[in-house]
Design brief:
The protein is an alpha/beta fold and about 90 residues long. It is built from four helices and six strands, in the order βαββαβαβαβ. Helices cover about 35% and strands about 15% of the residues.
């Protein structure tokens, strides 16, 4: 699972899903080859709209099984699912 939120969204909303790494949504081609090809890659943004959907689409174009987390980090936190503050885990 990858956090692909824009920098301003990460500054504004500092919760994140534990044990996830951040990747720049604007440079998928630079980091896509570091992703495992034998697992589904789930990406999330703030709300699960165009940022994560676009990145998942780009990863699929590179041959990965990629999905966007519906509702993003805000929906996950609203449901009370585990998260932590950026830099605390």
């Amino acid at each position: 699972m990858l956090d692909i939120r824009h920098d301003d969204d990460r500054e504004r909303y500092t919760a994140h899903i534990m044990d996830t790494e951040w990747r720049d949504s604007f440079t998928v081609e630079n980091w896509a080859d570091t992703c495992p090809r034998d697992k589904t890659i789930v990406v999330y943004c703030m709300y699960g709209f165009w940022v994560s959907q676009k990145v998942a689409e780009e990863l699929r174009a590179f041959g990965f099984d990629a999905r966007s987390l519906e509702g993003g980090i805000t929906a996950r936190c609203a449901m009370g699912l585990p998260s932590s503050e950026i830099g605390s885990d």
